[in-house]
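SAMPLE LOG
Freezer: B-3
Tube label: C17
Construct: single chain, 91 aa
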Amino acid sequence: MGKELNEDTGFQVSVKTLIAIGFSMATIIGMWFALQADIAEAKELPKPDITRMEFNMKDINVRQSISNTEKAVEELKIDIRRMEDKIDKLR
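STRUCTURE (predicted):
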């Protein structure tokens, strides 16, 4: 069985370990406050203005990408059909 932990239970920790734990805690706390400051700053920044022209250009680009993908899929389907036909002929 394991030892029972109570008020009289003791353990040893080296000074080096205590310093490492303290340094780690200080680093994490510092990062937390820096992150909170960055979030607060980001909340105060103005929202980016997206012009109608920029939106339209992005919309057209997305639609062209979808169209190109559809064409590529159709070409792949044709290639697969050709391969299936060749496999069937080999059987």
